[in-house]
Amino acid sequence: MYPSDFSEVRLTAPNLKRRFPPIGRIRSRTLLLLRWFAVTGQFAAVMTVYVGFGWDLPILWCMVAIAVSAMVNAIISLTHPATKRLGENEVTGSLAFDLVQLAVLLFLTGGLQNPFSVLFLAPVVISATSLSLRNTMLLIVVALTCITVLAFFHLPLPWAPGSEFELPPLYKLSTWGALFLGLVFTSIYAWRVAVEARHMSDALAATQAVLEREHRLAALGALAAAAAHELGTPLATIATVSKELKRDLGSDPSVGEDIELLGSEVDRCREILAKLGQAPEDRYGPINQVPFDLFLEELSEPHLNLGIDIELDMEGDDTGAQVPLIHRSPELVHGLGNLFENAVDFAARRVTLRMRWTERAVRLRIMDDGPGFATEVIDRLGEPYVTTRRRGGVPAVAVDDPRSDPDIQHLHDEGLGLGFFIAKTLLERTGASLSFSNLRSGGAEVRLDWDRESLETEPGPAI
User: Fold this and answer.
1) Of 305, 426, 447, 457, which residue is the least packed, with the fewest Cβ within 10 Å?
2) Is 256 in the same domain as 292?
3) How far is CA 273 from CA 119, 227, 237, 283, 286, in A?
4) Helix%, strand%, coil% for the chain, nearest 5
5) Within a domain: 1
């Protein structure tokens, strides 16, 4: 009665690539603009020192290093359309070139003593936000190699004529350490934030697909009303003709019974169309809005013959508060349906639904006697792409980035952890607060708390 398998949004191996667009797909125009900015800034800095301050530096070699970068950019702009999306390896190679070019320029202008050495962070952070962790780590290695070489080998820092600027070795070492920590920390932090943003975007799209599907089904009611209105005119004509036939030929025994049957069928069609023309809330009446305990009983009904005992424990407080009256919204149907199906799937013998309500609040506990939630992921339940339980004593795997795993099939077998995320997102739309824990006696527990007023209010349409 309540589908909760989310089959319409499940990410299987064949469509995984379609659901997750390849990472590292950066437009050629983006990298070109960034490099032109870098070339312009490098040229302005060198000319300011050489011409503006009048300090000595190997200007010819500096211009050659800048010109090489500009030449590479010009070649890429001529050979690649501006809107072309470069592959991950192409982007990695381009950023690695930028690191090496910056290292050459810094070698000519003081090495790590040059304050512009902080620019090593830029290509690595760009990689962290758009490329895989493997390619980002490769660029970190390239950057660390460059700053290590520059710590020992470099030309003097351009300075005022007649004097030479040289930092103490300890300060150089500190600069190297600061750059090392900055490269590692900022890149991993940026990569993690970008991955979570991609996960959340894809998972929210899956949730939206569920709601859109349910609201499309609800829209069929309006189509039915329109059909009833359009069919009313030809049906009235048929009714008029059948009455005239009955008046003219009703006494004829060969056709009289057929004419009577035709009239009764016309009346039946009118009754059906009258029901179709009603608004959903009028048509369903008490069925569309039901007591919460009855809703939970119907929710458990499809699972009664699966070899799992379903225990329903529902009662109010001592004040005599009535059972909450809820709407059969897609959020409740799919959200609670998924949580309940998950409990039945992992239970050994029993699943318990325990509901308590007062005049102001409603609490629902879904408990099973299965293996419980894996301790390593229990704090992350409700996030996208985090699997939830132990199967056969083997801990579930928290999948951080499905695209980085070469073995795609196991994701299809174990699921991508979207079920809990979708259920949590849908139920939070009804005002629910969810928490997950393991029972001391063994098994898992999902606890849902509502403010009664929010639970009894029908959720608005999906945005």
Assistant:
1) 305
2) no
3) 72, 8, 15, 12, 20
4) 60, 10, 30
5) no
Q: Could you read off the pLDDT tens digit of each residue along the chain, which spans 463 residues?
A: 444 443 333 433 334 333 444 455 677 888 888 888 989 999 999 999 888 888 888 999 999 999 999 999 898 888 877 777 778 888 888 899 999 999 999 999 988 888 888 889 888 888 888 888 888 889 999 999 999 999 888 898 888 777 777 778 888 888 888 888 888 888 888 887 877 777 676 666 666 666 666 566 555 555 556 666 667 778 788 888 888 877 777 677 777 777 777 877 887 777 766 665 554 444 444 456 788 888 888 888 888 877 888 888 888 776 778 888 888 787 888 888 888 888 888 888 999 999 999 888 999 999 999 888 888 778 777 776 666 555 444 444 444 444 344 333 333 334 445 677 778 888 888 888 998 999 988 889 999 999 988 888 765 544 4
Element (H, E) at 63: helix 59-79
- Residues 37, 156 share a domain: yes
pTM above 0.85, yes or no: no
Look up the domain containing 257 and give its range: 220-284
CA-to-CA distance for 342 and 347, rounded, in angstroms? Answer: 9
Return the bridge partners of 365, or none: 354, 447
Beta bridge partners, 26, equal 86
Residue 52 in any domain: the answer is yes
For 206, phi then psi, to 5°, come to -65, -40
Cβ count within 10 A of residue 187: 24
Report yes or no on 155 lying in a domain: yes
At 337, the amino acid letter reads G
Strand-pair partners of 351: 310, 368
Beta bridge mates, 86:
26
Dist. CA 185–CA 170, nearest whole Å: 22
Around 58, how many Cα atoms within 13 Å sit in the side-chain half-sphere?
Answer: 16
CA dihedral (235, 240, 244, 247) positive or negative? positive
Contacts of residue 254, defined as CB under 8 A and 6 or more positions apart, other chains included, come to none
